[in-house]
Amino acid sequence: MTDFTATKAMFNLPVGMVYLDGNSLGPLPKAAPARVADMLTKEWGEMLITSWNLSGWMVQPMVLGDRIAGLIGAEPGHVALGDTLSIKVYQALAAALDLRPDRRVILSDSGNFPTDLYMAQGLIRTLDKGHELRVVAPEDIKDAITDDVAVVMLTEADYRTGRLHDMADLTTKAHNVGALTIWDLAHTAGAIPVDVAGCNADFAVGCTYKYLNGGPGAPAFIYVSPRHSETINPVLSGWQGHESPFAFDLAYDPAVGVERMRVGTPSVIQMAALETALDVWDMADMTDVRARSIKLTDLFITEIEAACPMLTLASPRDGTKRGSQVSFQFKHGYAAMQAIIAEGVIGDFRAPDLLRFGFAPLYIDETDVHTAVKRITRVMTEKLWDRPDYKIRKTVT
Amino acid sequence: MTDFTATKAMFNLPVGMVYLDGNSLGPLPKAAPARVADMLTKEWGEMLITSWNLSGWMVQPMVLGDRIAGLIGAEPGHVALGDTLSIKVYQALAAALDLRPDRRVILSDSGNFPTDLYMAQGLIRTLDKGHELRVVAPEDIKDAITDDVAVVMLTEADYRTGRLHDMADLTTKAHNVGALTIWDLAHTAGAIPVDVAGCNADFAVGCTYKYLNGGPGAPAFIYVSPRHSETINPVLSGWQGHESPFAFDLAYDPAVGVERMRVGTPSVIQMAALETALDVWDMADMTDVRARSIKLTDLFITEIEAACPMLTLASPRDGTKRGSQVSFQFKHGYAAMQAIIAEGVIGDFRAPDLLRFGFAPLYIDETDVHTAVKRITRVMTEKLWDRPDYKIRKTVT
C-alpha cells in the first residue's frame, strides 16, 4: 500500500493553500533544491565537462526515461527524455506518417491540446503532400477511424474536462484499419495507470511537469514501440540522436532504438530537479494512486453538487472514464476562479466557462477536498466573484 | 574598460585547474546556485503557477533574448530563447527555404558542426523536394555561393580550429546572388564581437552554455532579421509561438515577430541559471573581451611553439581570423589530452588529432596561460602520455 502521508510530506505545499492545479504544474519536491544545488556546485561547478560522463549527464535522458517507462507501462529502454512536448509530438507524427506513406489523414479530436494540432499543421505544411488534419468531436473519434487514416493522434485525457479515451480500444481499432496511434499522456502520466505496451500503442509522448512534478520547463518524453524504433528515420536528426555523437561524422546515422529521438544537448539542470520528483514516484503504486484519485474526485463532485447547485459538472460522472481532474461549468467562470484562488484554492479557468480542479493523490487528501469545497462554496453562495466590496487578498494566508 | 579581475571573481573555478574548455561548457557563475535556489523555493515552491506571470517565466525567453541581442548586435526584440541549437537550426533553415521556394541548394562547409548538417539532412528528407546539401571545404565557401543557392548555412567559428568566416563579406555575397544566410554563433557569441544586424544576416542561432556560461542544457537562441520575422511561417508551430497561447484556438496563428519561433514550455530552471551568467556579461565590453582574447591566444601560441616543437598549430596564426580558441595537431592527440587534463589543464581532444584549448577572457588571464603552457610542456617533453609508469591523477589538486 502506498503511504500517501509519506508522499505528501515529500512536497512543499504553501501553508493555507489547497493546490488543485498539479495538472498544470506540480509542486516542488522538498528534495529538489538540495539536489539541484549539488548538481550546480559539484557537478557543474567543480567537475565541469567531466560530468557529461562522470555525473552521467549524457545518459540521463535514457536513465530517467526508464523511470518514466515504469509509470506508463513501457518496455525498459524505450522512453527517451528531452525537448518539449510540442517537439516530441512533431517527431512522433513525422515518424508515423513516414511509416504510412500511402495515407494522408491525421485524425484527432477537438479535445486535443491545441499545440498537438498546431504541430500537426506545421508538419503538414512542411511535407506539402496534401495531408489532412481531420478533427472530429471526441465522442465521434472511434467511428472516424477509417482505412484512409494514417495516424490517430489523441490526448488520453481531455485537458479541459478530464474525459478519458480508451487507449486499448482505439488503438485496436486503429490497427485493424492499418493506422498507427500517437498518445499524448500529458494529463495521464502520473494520473492514471497507463499501459502503452499492453495497449500496443505505437508512439506516446508526454510532459513531466504536471502530475510527475518535474518543475517548470521539465523535459518531455517520447515512447516508441520496439516494433518501430529500429526502422523510423528521425526528422529532427540531431547529434544527440546520432549513433556516435562524438565521432563528428558529417552524415547522420541514427542511434539504436528510441535514443535516435534525442535531438540536442539535454537540459541537465531541469533533469536534476525531475530526478527528485521521480524519487517520490518510487514510493507510489499507480493502482493505489488511481483508487485514491477516484475517491477524491468522487467526493469533490458529491460535495460541490450538494453545496453549489449553480455549478454544472463538465467532467464524466463515472470515475473510471475520468482522469484525475474535475471541471465545472459556470457562466462567470473567469471571475469565479479569481475569487476561488483568492480564497486559497488554486484551480484553473479554461475558456469559455470552465472551472478546472486537479487532484494529485500524492499530496492531496480528503481534508484538502473538504477545505476546498468549503471555500468554493463561500465564493459561490456569497457571490464573492461579483461583489465590488470584496477585496481579493494578494497573498494566501 | 572591462575589469577582468572582477569578472573572473564572478565564477567558480576549481582550485589548481586551468580551465581552457569554456568553449565547450562555461564555468559556474558563483551567483547561480543562490538564484536557482530562490527560483526553486520561492517562485516554484511558494508561488507555483502564478509565477508564469508574477515571476515573469512566460516572458523570460524574450527578456533574456534581449540581453543576448546586445551581445550579438541584434535589434532589441528580435532574439528568442528556447529549445536546443539543433532545433533552432531546423527552424531557421525551414523558414529560409520557405522564403526561397524556387531554389534547392543549402550550402555549408565541412567545418560546420555536424548537428547543423544532420538537421539539414533531416529537413531535406522531410521536404522531399530534391533539395541538396552542398558541403564544400571552408576555404571554398565564397566561390561556392552561386545563384542556385537558397541558403548559406555556416558556423562563424570552426569548432575544431577556431577559423573565422567573414560574416559581413559572405552575407553580402549571398545577398548579391539572391541567397539567404543562417549563422551559427555557437563559438562566437560571447567570444568575439558579432554584429548580425550590421552584417545584414538573415537568421542567426546559437547556444548559451559555451562562452555565455549558461550551464549544461542552457537554452539556445534564434535571431530573425526584422526583414523576415513578420513573414515567416514557423514549421515548428508550437503553442508558445502562438499569438494567444491561452486562447486555446484549434488553429495556429503566429505571434508577432521572432516570438513565433518559440515552440513549447520554456526551461525555466535553466533560464534562472543563465540569468546570472548574463549578469557577468553586463560587466564586460565585447571590444575589450576581443582584445584580451587575441592577446591571450597569441601568447599561448608563442609560448607553446617555443616550448613544444612537436605540436603543429592548426588554428589561424592571425588573431583577427581566429575565434577565442587555439588548436594544435599532434599524432597522439587523444593520449596527450588525457595527460594534459590529468596535469590540471582542461582542454578537449577533437578527432582525428587535435588538441583544442578555449580562452574565455572573462575568467582566463595571463597567469593561467603561463601555468597551462608549463604543464603542457611537461606532458609533451617528458612524453607523459606515453609512459606506462605515469599515474594519471584522479583529481586535480
Description of the molecule:
The structure is a homodimer of 397-residue chains. Chain A is of the alpha/beta class and 397 residues long. Chain A folds into two domains: 4-28 and 285-386, Alpha-Beta Complex (Aspartate Aminotransferase, domain 1); 32-281, Aspartate Aminotransferase, domain 2 (3-Layer(aba) Sandwich), CATH 3.40.640. Chain A is 36% helix and 14% strand. Chain A has a seven-stranded mixed beta sheet with strand order 4-10-9-8-7-5-6, with helices on both faces. The longest helix of chain A is centred in the last third of the chain and has 22 residues, at 286-307. The mean pLDDT of chain A is 96. At the A-B interface, helix 2, helix 5, helix 6 and helix 9 of A face helix 2, helix 5, helix 6 and helix 9 of B.
List keywords for this structure.
homodimer; 397 residues; alpha/beta; Aspartate Aminotransferase, domain 1; Aspartate Aminotransferase, domain 2; 7-stranded mixed β-sheet; 4-stranded antiparallel β-sheet; 36% helix; 14% strand; globular
Radius of gyration of chain A: 22 Å
CATH evolutionary superfamily of the largest domain in chain A: Type I PLP-dependent aspartate aminotransferase-like (Major domain)
CATH class of the largest domain in chain A: Alpha Beta
* Tally of contiguous helical segments of chain A: 12
Share of helix of chain A, binned = 25-40%
**Span from first to last CA of chain A?**
34 Å
Q: Can you tell me the number of structural domains of chain A?
A: 2
Name the chain pair with the biggest interface and residue counts per chain.
Answer: A-B, 82 and 82 residues
What series of H and E elements makes up the topology of chain A? HEEEHHHEHEHEHEHEEEHHEEHEEEH
- Which fold does the CATH topology of the largest domain in chain A refer to? Aspartate Aminotransferase, domain 2
Shape of chain A: globular
What is the assembly state of the chains in this entry? homodimer
User: How is the biggest beta sheet of chain A arranged?
Assistant: 7 strands, mixed
